[in-house]
């Protein structure tokens, strides 16, 4: 039976948006699932808006079309808000994880909370967490930890194993720790039933 | 010539292929009965074809140097066409013709295959006319030089696209008439200020060996082939080969014209190692360019009642500049 | 071993497992990860006796392969789009000379306008070059086809291009089982050339042939491709026996047995097509698909057999023959001579425009209801086209179509896919 779950990740070139999708797929594979990750392709350029996709399912995935109706959105760069149509096709009961130190209200997304399930929409300071653990505000690994906690679709240790496989040594440890920090933060918020 | 040679040069000269006054070891490859005849008789070249002669000299010398382990890649052109009239072939070595512009790359591929198979003993020659080398094959030639692939590339330069009817190439000299640079109206034939000096470009790539030669001097040419074959890496040989048909010269003048182009200074004959000129073949008897130009109908418009002495002067100035620059 | 990896990386490993002796690399999106992957593996010593040659152009890439293959070495290269065009002369030469070169073609659109995204215009443009053309539906199949390609090529003395959708497959991370080196060694014996440039046994390759013999020589190239109609399924069967999974072959039917409507397509779009067919079957529609794996040689018999029971055929293609319409459709029609079916052609996905499930559903519904024009362009923005045609008709300096249309489109970043 298919239990297709589709994720769309938004960010800017250089922020590891493509890597994030790949790591999600590796984590899912590690849990014995079928997964597919691919970027929305373009010429190499830092700073430009980038989108990547990940599909996870318990049965083989045949289609390669872009994710049009994401079950989860990960937004790595809040400056994309109001610049790029981040929420196109966003499922009504979808999950949102947005990298920001401010809350969704402060980011002008109240109406989003009205149209979707507010307990599934979260802003987290992933860049800050990353800076503490890595020395650089690269939020992708942290957000993957947060994703695991928010959606429950992946285990934290699967995410961390994927991270270690991709990033050897200190980089791997820093990223895995950032993922764990963000996981804890989100798990706590989810537990509290908070929505911003 | 050996150091103890007592015979005066002009009595022997390089015209005398296989002269029996020479020590057997001093004789050319062409003089030997055991020469490979890499391009053997029966090909369909015009009488007096300088390219057929040049190819014979070069390939037999290369076959000797490589002990018969030589593979050739040939560009489209006269040499390819007249040597392989299906179902016959005059090639007695492994030989491939692919397309017009890729002979240097095909040669690179053959060399790569030998490396992959650990066959260091098998050597590779790429060859083509001026069109295939200077123009359409130039990108591939430069790539082969840049990679320093172990290929000896030989350009047989008869200064135009001959096989297609004598059209202008990047090697056509100024003032020459070709099918599309006719001296009509004010036009002097081929333009001044154009053209590519591929030997110098080859040197600019810093490849191990670059040399020029003509079919008038088989000893010199063979020696240069031998020197080249004694090295590894990218090597380039530019051979001046008169074309009686394309130039409108008498078929028996081929060797004479090759000698004259050197003696006037219009075609510097030299060797260069690692990008620097090391040897120059000096002019024996300085000759005015007219003597070289007059026997060729492609320069006929420069002479006679409606001639252009000012153009002849420009050509003389070019020759004089070469003599000075190269120390000819 | 099953691994979650990028399609290109998997192909690189598969190619290295086939022990090429000469690999030529010239970069072009979206093939770059493949040649980079091979370079890394060669440098890491994963392959002894492999010469990796960085060339100065695609024309040089194919030419170096020609020299290498003619000298008896197993040769490989990869390209896409404009690069394929740039090597066109050498492409025909390799096929005509019977050299078993294998090439990955990361399918990408041909410009102008310059476009780096996926469609089939590149491979379709060279369909008559004499090369065998195989199309992969998935990354797994792409990997498997490369292994089969070397065997097919060397058995026939004919070059093979393995087509895989650029970006869509090359840059997708999926689970792939890359064949182990030992298994590939058992499957693919060392290259025994039918002809070789060898000083010990000199031969002349590439003579000029006049009217007295050209037609026969040309026919023999065709005859070899006819032979390939047997060789391709043979090698596919050998592969399945050795590696335990089906892949390749000439064509594969999907829910086709009782289908009244059959969709014919090549490449990765078949995944989305199969999903759509499953949904329609749930709704009771008798629809199926025919996946073409080999486009050259074109499997006329297999296509005819698959379609003869159907009422209608919809050929979905990712290339446009400007001035006439469909390319694959024209080939399919040849197989249907004498049969009476409704035939539809839909051109989709040009320049990388995504082919979505909902769009396909709409298209298939229309086909089933015979509501389609013979030639359809899926998801075409007709308003924009009309506006541009109006501008042209108004005369004067109308400017370049691409720039005019992009001006209408506005900020590209604002659009979602």
Q: Could you characterize what this model shows?
A:
- The complex is a heterotrimer of chains A (196), B (328) and C (417).
- Chain A has one domain: Pyruvate-ferredoxin Oxidoreductase, domain 3.
- In chain A, strands 2-3-1-4-5-6 form a 6-stranded mixed β-sheet, with helices on one face.
- Chain A has 6 helices and 6 strands; from the N terminus they run E-H-E-E-E-E-H-E-H-H-H-H.
- By secondary structure, chain A is of the alpha/beta class.
- Chain B has one domain: 3-Layer(aba) Sandwich (Rossmann fold).
- Chain B has 12 helices and 8 strands.
- Chain B has an 8-stranded mixed β-sheet, with helices on both faces.
- Chain C has 417 residues and is of the alpha/beta class.
- Chain C has 3 domains: 242 residues, Thiamin diphosphate (ThDP)-binding fold, Pyr/PP domains (Rossmann fold, 3-Layer(aba) Sandwich); 127 residues, Rossmann fold (3-Layer(aba) Sandwich), CATH 3.40.50; 33 residues, no CATH class.
- Chain C is 42% helix and 18% strand.
- The C terminus of chain C is likely disordered.
- The chains are: A alpha/beta (196), B alpha/beta (328), C alpha/beta (417).
Number of strands of chain B: 8
Number of domains of chain A: 1
With helices defined by DSSP (H or I, 4 residues minimum), what is the helix count of chain A?
6
The CATH class of chain A is identified as: Alpha Beta
Q: What is the rounded Rg of chain B? A: 19 Å
Work out the count of structural domains of chain B: 1
Tell me the major beta sheet of chain B.
8 strands, mixed
Global geometry of chain A: globular
Helix percent band of chain A: 25-40%
Q: Averaging pLDDT over every residue of chain A, what do you get? A: 93
Question: So, CATH architecture of chain A?
Answer: 3-Layer(aba) Sandwich
Number of distinct helices of chain B: 12
What percent strand of chain A?
A: 15-25%
Topology order of chain A in helix (H) and strand (E) letters: EHEEEEHEHHHH
Average pLDDT of chain B works out at: 93
Largest interface: B-C, 46 and 44 residues
Residue stretches of chain A low in confidence (pLDDT < 50, at least 5 long) are none
| Structural category of chain B | alpha/beta
């Amino acid at each position: 039976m298919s239990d297709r779950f589709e994720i769309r990740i938004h960010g800017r070139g250089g922020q590891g948006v493509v890597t994030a999708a790949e790591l999600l797929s590796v984590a899912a594979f590690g849990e014995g699932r079928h997964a597919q990750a691919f970027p929305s392709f373009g010429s190499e350029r830092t700073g430009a808006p980038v989108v990547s996709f990940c599909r996870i399912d318990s049965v083989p995935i045949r289609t390669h079309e872009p994710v049009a109706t994401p079950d989860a959105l990960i937004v790595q760069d809040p400056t994309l808000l109001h610049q790029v149509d981040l929420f196109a096709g966003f499922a009504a009961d979808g999950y949102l994880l947005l990298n920001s130190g401010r809350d969704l209200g402060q980011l002008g997304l109240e109406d989003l909370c009205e149209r979707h399930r507010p307990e599934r929409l979260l802003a987290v300071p992933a860049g800050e967490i990353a800076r503490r653990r890595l020395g650089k505000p690269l939020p992708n690994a942290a957000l993957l930890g947060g994703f695991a906690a928010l959606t429950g679709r992946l285990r934290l240790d699967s995410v961390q194993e994927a991270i270690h496989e991709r990033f050897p040594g200190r980089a791997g440890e820093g990223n895995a720790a950032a993922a764990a920090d963000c996981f804890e933060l989100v798990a706590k918020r989810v537990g509290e039933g908070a929505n911003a | 010539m050996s150091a103890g040679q007592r015979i005066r040069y002009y009595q022997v000269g390089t015209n005398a292929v296989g002269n029996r006054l020479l020590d057997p070891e001093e004789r050319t490859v062409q003089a030997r009965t055991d020469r490979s005849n890499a391009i053997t008789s029966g090909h369909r070249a015009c009488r007096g074809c300088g390219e057929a002669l040049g190819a014979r000299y070069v390939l037999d010398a290369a076959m000797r140097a490589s002990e018969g382990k030589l593979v050739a890649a040939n560009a489209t052109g006269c040499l390819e066409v007249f040597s392989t009239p299906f179902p016959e072939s005059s090639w007695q070595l492994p030989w491939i013709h692919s397309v017009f512009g890729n002979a240097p790359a095909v040669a690179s591929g053959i060399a790569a295959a030998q490396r992959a198979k650990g066959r260091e003993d098998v050597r590779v020659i790429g060859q083509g006319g001026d069109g295939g080398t200077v123009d359409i094959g130039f990108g591939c030639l430069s790539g082969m030089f840049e990679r320093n692939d172990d290929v000896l590339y030989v350009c047989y330069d008869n200064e135009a696209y001959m096989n297609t009817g004598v059209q202008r190439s990047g090697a056509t000299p100024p003032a020459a008439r070709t099918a599309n640079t006719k001296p009509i109206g004010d036009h002097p034939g081929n333009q001044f200020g154009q053209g590519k000096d591929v030997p110098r470009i080859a040197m600019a790539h810093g490849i191990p060996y670059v040399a020029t030669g003509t079919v008038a001097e088989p000893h010199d040419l063979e020696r240069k082939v031998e020197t080249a074959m004694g090295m590894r890496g990218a090597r380039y040989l530019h051979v001046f080969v008169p074309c009686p048909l394309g130039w409108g010269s008498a078929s028996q003048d081929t060797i004479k014209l090759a000698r004259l182009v050197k003696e006037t200074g219009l075609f510097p004959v030299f060797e260069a190692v690692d990008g620097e000129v090391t040897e120059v073949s000096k002019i024996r008897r300085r000759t005015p360019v007219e003597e070289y130009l007059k026997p060729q109908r492609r320069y006929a418009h420069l002479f006679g009642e409606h001639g252009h002495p000012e153009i002849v002067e420009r050509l003389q100035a070019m020759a004089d500049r070469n003599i000075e620059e190269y120390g000819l | 071993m099953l691994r979650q990896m990028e399609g290109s990386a998997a192909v690189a490993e598969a190619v290295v497992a086939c022990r090429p002796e000469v690999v030529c690399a010239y970069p072009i999106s979206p093939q770059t990860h493949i040649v980079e992957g091979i370079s890394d593996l060669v440098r890491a010593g994963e392959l002894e006796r492999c010469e990796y040659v960085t060339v100065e152009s695609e024309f040089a890439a194919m030419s170096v392969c020609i020299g290498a293959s003619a000298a008896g070495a197993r040769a490989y290269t990869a390209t896409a789009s404009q690069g394929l065009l740039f090597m066109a002369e050498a492409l025909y030469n390799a096929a005509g000379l019977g050299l078993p070169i294998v090439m990955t073609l990361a399918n990408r659109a041909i410009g102008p306008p310059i476009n780096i995204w996926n469609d089939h215009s590149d491979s379709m443009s060279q369909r008559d070059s004499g090369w065998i053309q195989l199309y992969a539906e998935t990354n797994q199949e792409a990997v498997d086809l490369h292994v089969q390609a070397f065997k097919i090529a060397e058995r026939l003395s004919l070059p093979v291009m393995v087509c895989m959708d650029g970006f869509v497959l090359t840059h997708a991370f999926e689970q792939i089982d890359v064949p182990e080196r030992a298994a590939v060694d058992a499957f693919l014996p060392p290259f025994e050339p039918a002809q070789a440039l060898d000083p010990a046994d000199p031969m002349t390759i590439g003579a000029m042939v006049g009217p007295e013999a050209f037609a026969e020589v040309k026919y023999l190239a065709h005859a070899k491709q006819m032979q390939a109609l047997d060789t391709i399924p043979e090698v596919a069967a050998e592969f399945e026996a050795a590696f335990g999974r089906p892949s390749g072959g000439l064509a594969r039917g999907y829910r086709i047995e009782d289908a009244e409507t059959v969709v014919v397509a090549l490449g990765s779009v078949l995944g989305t097509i199969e999903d759509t067919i499953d949904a329609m079957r749930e709704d009771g529609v008798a629809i199926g698909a025919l996946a073409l794996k080999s486009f050259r040689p074109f499997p006329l018999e297999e296509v005819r057999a698959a379609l003869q029971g159907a009422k209608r055929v919809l050929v979905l293609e990712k290339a446009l023959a400007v001035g006439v319409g469909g390319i694959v459709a024209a080939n399919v029609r040849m197989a249907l001579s004498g049969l009476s079916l409704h035939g539809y052609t839909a051109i989709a996905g040009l320049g990388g425009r995504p082919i979505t499930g909902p769009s396909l559903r709409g298209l298939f519904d229309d086909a089933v209801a015979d509501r389609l024009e013979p030639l359809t362009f899926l998801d075409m923005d007709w308003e924009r086209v009309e506006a541009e045609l109006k501008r042209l008709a108004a005369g004067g300096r109308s400017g370049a179509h691409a720039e005019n249309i992009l001006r209408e489109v506005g900020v590209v970043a604002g659009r979602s896919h």
